[in-house]
Design goal:
single chain, 160 residues, mainly beta, Pnp Oxidase, Chain A, 41% strand, binds flavin mononucleotide
């Protein structure tokens, strides 16, 4: 049986970007920080995100079948922390001027990239749900990504 601490340490060796996944259902908007994001297919254009079953965001995606993935820039570390913290989780969007693209999921400004998605498959996977989404629309900016490695935000630009 794999030790859970070893498992977490090993997973921490995967360097990733950081995203915020948002959704809208029954008049409510919500979103959370997510690193479990991947491209899946070019034709049709598919991506996936993994959402903890106990998260509020999961509840909204389950109800509405829509989500928007925001790939964060280096300047958005505070936003990442805000959307990961359980403190004031219902005030995450306060002071943010959101827009929408195709699905109606809230779109945060100034992100490195945004993928607006409709859920085409939801797979039960342990304590998470894997949501495969068809990308209805996408945008990007020419800015530097926020990176995450071994439980911390990183800047590898000065390293060999
Ligand atoms: C860097 C980072 C990556 C995260 N990745 C995920 C993830 O892939 N899936 C997930 O469900 N939660 C992930 N989380 C945790 C959620 O952001 C956190 O539990 C959040 O408070 C859930 O919000 P909600 O319950 O209000 O929707 C991550 C947190 C951080 C800081």
């Amino acid at each position: 049986m794999l030790d859970q601490e070893v498992f977490k340490t090993v997973l921490g060796r995967w360097a990733s970007g950081v995203t915020i996944v948002t959704s809208r259902a029954e008049g409510k908007i919500h979103g959370m920080t997510v690193s479990a994001f991947s491209s899946v297919s070019l034709e049709p254009p598919l991506v996936l995100v993994c959402a903890d079953k106990s998260s509020i965001t999961n509840e909204l995606i389950e109800k509405s079948g829509i989500y928007a993935v925001h790939i964060l820039s280096k300047e958005q570390q505070d936003l990442s922390n805000k959307f990961a913290s359980k403190k004031d989780e219902h005030r995450r969007f306060e002071g943010i001027n959101c827009s929408t693209m195709v699905t109606g999921a809230p779109v945060l400004p100034d992100c490195l990239a945004v993928l607006d998605c409709t859920v085409v498959a939801a797979h039960d996977a342990g304590d998470h749900i894997v949501y495969v989404g068809r990308v209805e629309d996408a945008t990007n900016l020419d800015v530097t990504p926020l990176l995450y490695y071994q439980g911390a935000y990183r800047d590898f630009s000065s390293e060999e």
